[in-house]
Amino acid sequence: MIFALLSFLFFIALEAFFALSEMALISAERLSLQKRAKNERIARIALKLLDNPERLFTTTIMGITMSIAGNAIFTSYFLISSLGNAGAILSLLIPIFTFLFGQAFPKVISKVYSQTLVLIVAPILYLLSFLFYPVYYLNQSLTNLIFRKKEDHSTIPFIKFREVFLSLIKYEEEIDAKERELMHKIFEFSKKKVYQVMIPLPQVKALPLTATLDIAIEFCKQYNFSYIPLYKDNPTNLIGVVRVKDLLSETKDYSLPISQFMIEPLFIPENIPAYEALAFMQNSNQDFAIVVDEYGLTTGIITLEDLAEEVLGEFSDQLDYQHRLIIPLSDKTYLAKGIVEIEKLSQLGLEIASSEFETLNGFLYSLFKRIPETGESIRYKNFEFIIRKATPTTVEEVLIRRVD
Question: How many angstroms separate the CA atoms of 73 and 8, rounded?
Answer without folding.
Answer: 10
